[in-house]
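<instruction>
Derive structure tokens from the sequence
<data>
Labelled lines for chain and fold
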Amino acid sequence: MPNVPQRLVNLDLDLLRAFAAVAEAGSFTRAGARLGRTQSAVSLQIQRLETQLGVQLLTRDPRHSAPTPTGEALLIQARRLLRLNDEIVAGITEHNLEGEVRLGAPEDFATAHLPDVLGDFSRAYPHVNLSVTCDLTLHLIEQMSQGELDLALIKREPMGPALGAPVWREPLVWVAADASMLTAHEKFPLVVAPAPCVYRKRAIAALDEIGRPWRIAYTSPSLAGQHAALRAGLGVTVLPREMAPDDLIVLDASDGLPALADTEITLIRAKTLPVAAERLADFIFTILSEEDKRMHGAAQ
């Protein structure tokens, strides 16, 4: 008998957008607020998508929803489809979109990961002015609360979607000029950013947990200043693995140092966003989330 071709399923982009919104927000209610729909309407859209594909895409409980393993795989592809759709629509209807978007980000993350994202956005929306502020997370949150920013990428401990939506996972490592720093001082010398800093907090907590005495040897809000202190042999610091300079060394358990859990970068947004800021948020979610999956894999 001839092979019977399988029925093709045409994915509904509205359903995919609802699914991506729930996955990013971690809540049907928060996703509904983002999409301008009720919680029940969003829930119905997810049910329709799951029925269409014949799989469960999200776990559900009263406080939090998260993608299943199948949902995680779909989320990557869904973001690509939505991004392509939005680029096509923008090229036809929004090419002349104008306005200003005020984005805040930590200096190190902005330097390492944002240029390509912002370059793609500027090419898609050449008439939108980007105003980018690089600062410490504490200051960025303050600026958001005062209405001075539309969007901000902040560093924080992993905590789900309670504040913003995670877009990047940061595996942390110990970094120094050489291993002699571990035995040359009675108290472990730390090179850190001013408090509150998630890397500073993580380093101190890890040392306290193993009972190792420490002291703050050098404090600088600038990544360049911290690197200079490390190269001068003033101490040891904690950095994201991919931001450790090639001329410095990474220390680990074999050097007697405690393991460090990951931190994350989260995107937070103002309560009311102009269209241009919504488009930039979509770019950030899509590009950074895909790159994060490629570099770090699924969160453990």
